[in-house]
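Notes from hallway chat w/ T.B., transcribed later so I don't forget. T.B. wanted the structure written out for a chain they're using in a teaching module, and asked if we could keep both sequence and structure tokens in one place. Agreed to drop them here.
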Amino acid sequence: MKIALIAHDRLKPAFVVWVRKHEAVFAQHRMVATGTTGTQIKLACPTLDIALVKSGPLGGDQQIGAMIADGTVDAVIFMADPLTPMPHDVDVKALVRLSTLYNIPMACNEATADLIAGWLARMASH
């Protein structure tokens, strides 16, 4: 399965810690991440193979949206910061819309991300 990983700036450190907690699960899947998020995850989890797209504000969110539409992303974990205004807020809304349209599981908080991580672990064991 291919999992998209995205986090807004203020949430990146906690997201990296969360990915490290689930590193064994992610090692069994392919991943794609926006530039800055993916770079930070690669530094913390060097064994993970993560394809990078552009940074979110530079088009990375849209690149991942295109992958959803193409059917090449199976789940999205997007730690969006609800308390900080984002200049590319329309890109975030587009990802939510595409995930809904194409019936792609999308986590926007740690509780839902934990559920997706559990689902990925079960998928890998089959």
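Follow-up for T.B.: Helices lie at 12-21, 23-26, 35-44, 60-70, 89-101, 110-125. Might be a good example for the class.
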